[in-house]
Amino acid sequence: MPELPEVESLRRYLVRERLPGSVFERVEIESKPSPETGTGAISDLTRLPGRRVERLERRGKQIAVVLDEGVLGLHMGMTGRIEVLAESEPTPRFTRVEFFLRNDTNGTKNFRMVLADPRRWGAIRTFTDLREAFAGLGPDALDPGFTAEHFAEAVGHRKSQIKPLLLDQSLIAGVGNIYADEALHRVGISPARRANRISGKNLHSLYLAIRESLEHALEFILSHPDDRGRPFIVDAHDDRMRLRRKSGAFCPRCEIPLRTKSFGGRTAYYCSNCQH
Ligand SMILES: [Zn+2]
Hints:
Bound molecules: zinc ion
Oligomer: single chain
Strand content: 15-25%
Number of domains: 2
CATH architecture of the largest domain: Alpha-Beta Barrel
Strand order of the largest sheet: 1-6-7-5
CATH class of the largest domain: Alpha Beta
Structural class: alpha+beta
CATH topology of the largest domain: N-terminal domain of MutM-like DNA repair proteins
């Protein structure tokens, strides 16, 4: 699933491809009836033609394409992938929406932006403004304005276990399952620890570990583009992580087998020896 680092690398890719400054000319939405999989919504996009893209914002896993009037929200869901293609290039399999754009700011560029999404959990929606597009999301985990003090305020007094709190997008936006596990392992905190039982010093270390894990992953993705400069969606088994998320994997520190435990349906990988 695309997480914060993948989505941020996608945002930067769309900026490089000159989405800002472009005007939507038309939109084509897949006309086939929706199969049983997926609940991702595609909202009414008829007002999009003629709208100009001003800039791209991101909070957590949500991209907001800020227009001269309104906002277009892009959410990748489980398997969504957005690509910029020249007019003549073939449409990828599983394409759900095709946007035709034109950018006249520095020589004319006509291009398409497509959402291909085999499992159809991605969502493309229009919003009145940024506030509506990011409704329900806490501060972005990589936002420079999101400090260790904010982190401690958001989770430190809560009696819930730390793992589900980290995944709660209304508290902090963009900490996915694999990054939460990685950060908790780095600082030796059990995913089952109650947040209010973690010392201030350890909360500070956890904040730093979350930022480092996400920044490291973003660096990794940015330095491994595909042959056309596109960010690729990587799985959890690449070199970004110290923790190997598969059964039988060992703790990278003490080398005993990792354990797994489910928190609200999300599997945590952790070391019972190193994490308390
Ligand atoms: Zn260990």
